[in-house]
Amino acid sequence: MAKPKYTSHVGMVDILPDESPKWRALENIIHEEAARFNFEEIRTPIMEQTELIVRGIGQLTDIVSKEIFAFEKGDSHYVLRPELTAPVVRSYVEHHLDQRGGSQKLYYIGPMFRAEKPQKGRQRQFHQFGVEVIGSDDPVADVETIAFMMRIYERIGIKNFELKLNSVGDPESREAYKAALRDHLKPNLHKLSEISQNRFEKNPMRILDSKEAEDQEFIKNAPVIQDYLNEETAEHFEKVTAYLEDLEISYTIDPHLVRGMDYYTRTAFELTSPDLGSQDALAGGGRYDLLVEEIGGQPTPAVGFAAGMERLLIACEELNIELTAEKSVDVYFVTLGDSARSFAVTHLPKLREAGISATMDYMSRSMKAQMKDANRENARYTLIIGDNELNEGKFTLRNMKESEENSLTFDEILKKLR
Ligand code: AMP
């Protein structure tokens, strides 16, 4: 085939007609389960002000690692959203959602953008679904958030995964832990990777998730944060784990699971799958009790997660899980001549109104070609319409699978298929 004149941007992929049914099936599952959990959908714009996403110099490392798409228009600076936690919190603060009362249990589905180097499971435009529960610091909110995430995979039939859990503490416990971590690393600081050396002062906890070979031996023996949690934070974590056990959701505690930003607090979690290869994270989340205030709202605790939809679909493929039934249409109108086509155009809606899917040929093709097309579309029935049929008021309804034909009036057909 000839090389196309235009292609999509690298790392941005078309979801083609053969694939869209499984996306819709996945979206339907998410909407259905969200309704069961009483989560409400929120939809925010694709672009946000740069200042929202890059808040202060502390996030500069993040903008580099997440490689954000940025634009200018006049004096305004925009980015394509790389994730939805900050935008959802922005919306919560901007629209005073706290005044609706109670905690806000929000969920979203949509595209995110990161200018990363594309590879399997890593795109520049990809999709996430996720939850943000804003306004509660109860461990129940953490557990319901995790339970919703797990429910989606359970319903789809993905069972082969690991839920890793940690507490990243509150500011007080974290200061104590960071001091202990620096004490542990300091004697060997010169042996650490350059990137870890740079993190030593400002963000030593990030060293714990370093992938650099030379860091591993020092990470292995590092003190663990669980030993530095103050009473309140330790108790919160214990309640989260106890509820998870009650729900029979298995997890492993991973003391090296940390998060980049200071606004993350207490519960952190990640769901990984061995079916995904090197990009093995299905979803991740945790508490961010300090973010709402950072974005200009009242101090408000919150917890959430984000899950990659492409990765979920890759896992389905690896596990031979079919998210959708085969494509099909109930009735294909095979038309012979102009009057038959007019009849079809005005009678297709009658079937559709009755909940029966129906289509016809748009290319005035021969009967043979239309029958072939009906097969390609996996039609359950064909309805053959020609001048004779129109004169008699009776049409041939052919059951394609059983190769069985009936001559019926249109009303009889409606009744039969309904
Ligand atoms: P994060 O916001 O980085 O915690 O990502 C949450 C989830 O989104 C990950 O666990 C992945 O499943 C998915 N994800 C993140 N980045 C990408 C990407 N570039 N392409 C596809 N999926 C991604």
Question: How would you describe the overall organization of this protein?
Answer:
By secondary structure, this protein is of the alpha+beta class. The protein has three domains: 20-170 and 248-318, BirA Bifunctional Protein, domain 2 (2-Layer Sandwich), CATH 3.30.930.10; 172-229, no CATH class; 329-417, 3-Layer(aba) Sandwich (Rossmann fold), CATH 3.40.50.800. It is built from 15 helices and 16 strands. The protein has helices at residues 20-37, 50-53, 60-66, 85-94, 139-156, 171-185, 194-199, 216-220, 231-246, 291-294, 309-318, 338-353, 367-376, 387-392, 410-417, and strands at residues 40-41, 47-49, 70-73, 76-80, 104-113, 125-134, 162-167, 252-253, 265-272, 281-287, 302-308, 329-335, 358-360, 379-385, 395-399, 404-408. The strands form three sheets. Strands 1-5-6-11-10-9-7-8 form an eight-stranded mixed β-sheet, sandwiched between helices. It has a five-stranded mixed β-sheet with strand order 13-12-14-15-16. A three-stranded antiparallel β-sheet has the order 2-4-3. Strand 15 and strand 16 form a beta hairpin. Helix 1 (20-37) packs antiparallel against helix 5 (139-156). The two termini are 44 Å apart. The mean pLDDT is 93. Bound molecules: adenosine monophosphate. Adenosine monophosphate is lined by residues 83, 114, 116, 121-123, 126, 128, 281-284, 306-308, 310-311.
